[in-house]
Amino acid sequence: MSAFPGSPRLLRGGIVLTDPTTGAVLRIIALQYNPDTLTRSLQVKGVGQVSGDHVEALRLKGPPVETIKVEVEIDATDAMEANDGPTNEAGLHPQLAALETMVYPRSAALLAANAEASAGSLEIAPALAPLPLFVFGPKRIVPVRITELSITEEAFDAQLNPTRARVSLGLRVLTVDDLGFDAKGGNLFMTYLQGKEQLASRAAGGSFASLGINGIP
After folding, report:
1. Is 9 part of a structural domain of the chain?
2. How far apart are CA 198 and CA 217, in angstroms?
3. How many domains, in total, are found in the chain?
C-alpha cells in the first residue's frame, strides 16, 4: 500500500551490533514493525540505603540501572505475496536467526575454546560478544546488554518455516559504570545522558499555584 503524498518517513527502531573495542559496525538489524509500546524501568543507585543515614540520603553512586522491554512483530506475508525467493524458501528463519545469534557465542569461538581445553589450557577467557546498541530514533541510541529473548512463532508455511512471529526483548542499558569513560560504548552512554539533560531543560516548569499552595512552608 502506498503512503499518502507528503506523509513523513517512518523511522524504524533496531539494534546495531558493534565491535566492543573499535566501535566498528558489524551488523544492523532493523525492526520490520516498530513496537506499539516500550517499557522502561529505572532502579536508582543511591548511597543512603539505610533509614536514618542523613548524610548520604541524597547521594547517588552512579547512573540508575535502566531496563527496556519491547515486543516486536515479524511477518512474511508481504514478501511471500511478492514471491520473494529467500522468504519462500526459508520463511522468517533468517530474520529470527539474526536476532538469536546475538545471544550465542560464535561457533568459531566455541571450537577455539574446545581446542584450547584439549591442548591442556587451564584458563580460557569467555568469548567477547559484539556490543549491541539499541536505536529507537536519533534521541535514543544506547549501549545495551540483551538479558532476555523470547520468540513466539504463530504461523507456518507448508514446509513448517515460520511466517509470523512475536519477539520479546529485554535489554539493560550499559553505563560508564559498566563500560568506562574511554570506551566507545561509554561515550555513547554519556551522549544519551546529556541528551536527557538537554530535553529536561526544555520541559515547561510548574508553579506553586498549580500545586494548590503559595510556597514551601
Report:
1. no
2. 31
3. 1
